[in-house]
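Hi U.,

Before I forget, here's the chain from the pilot set. I'm dumping it here mostly so it's searchable later in email.
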Amino acid sequence: MTRRPTFPFSNAHVNTILANHGPRKWLIRHRAKAMNARSHEVLLDCSNGVRLHGVYTPGRDPGKSLITLIHGWEGTAWSIYLQSAAIRLEAEGHSIFRLHLRDHGPTHHLNAEPFLAIRLDEVMEALEQINLRFPHERTYLCGYSLGANFVVRAAAVSGSWSIPLDGALAFSPPIDPEAAARSIRSYSVYNRYFTAKWQKSFRNKMACFEDLRAHEALLQHHDIYAMHEDFIPRFSEHPDAASYFRAYALTAENLSQMDAPCHVVMVRDDPIIPVATSALLPDLDGLTLEVRPYGGHCGFVEGFGVDGWADDLLLDMVEKCA
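Structure:
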C-alpha cells in the first residue's frame, strides 16, 4: 500500500505536474547524463517502409535482462518518468531500450502518415527487432499512460510474434480512451497542455511533409476531443473519435487472452485516467490489476526525493522474475 505523499505531493495535480517538472526534472536530468552518454540511438526498419526509433542503453551485465520502456502520449525517451525508471534499472546492471512511438521524440520525418494509437503492428515489429538485435536471457516490457495501453495489447499478442516476453508492467493505461479524453477535457490546464503538445507535434509533421498542410485547420482547435473528432476521419478508416477510441480500448472486445503475464497499475487519484474504468478490464489469466491510492498521473512520488514508487515496483518485477 502506497503511503500518503507528503505535502504538497498529496495533491494529485501537484504530484502530476511537479514530479515531471521543477527541481525533480533538473535532478533526474542531471543523474541521467552518464547513462545517456553510454546510450546510442537505434533505427528500426519495419514493413511497408515504416521506421521507428529508440535509445539503447547496454547494462553492465550483458545478456542479463532487457527492459523496453514506452513513453506516454507526446512523451519521449527523455521524459522524466522514463529516465527515472531507466536510471534505476541501469544501476542494477540491466539493459534498457526506450522505444519511441511514431511521431514522438525526433521522429516526425521518418514516416509520412501521422501517429495513431491503433498502429500496434509496427510496435510489435519494432519489439521483434529489438529482441533480435539485442538478445538477452530475459526480456520485459513497461509502459506509461498511452505507452502502457500499447504494453497491455503487446503482451496479449506477443505469442504471435518472435517476442520472448517474460513479463509486462503497465502504469496508468487508458483502459477506456474515450473516458480519458473526456477527463482531459474536463480540466482546462490538461486540455490546454495536451492540445498544445499535439498541435506542436503536428506542426513538426507538416514541416516534414508539405502535403499535410492541407490539414492545417487542425491547429485551430482548443478542445482535445474536438480535435480528435476532426483528426480521426482525416487519417484513419474510423468515421469518428468514438469508434477510434473503441478500437484500442483494453476491453474484452479487443483482448481475448494474454500471451505474456501483464500487471496493470492504476492510481485512484489520477486526474486523467479514471480509475473506475478498471472495471472494464477483462478477467484473463495472466492479466492482473493493482490500484494504488496516490500518485496522480505518471507522478508516482511520495515527497521531495528523486525516486518514485513506480520505479521500485518495476525493479521488483524484474528482480522477482530473474
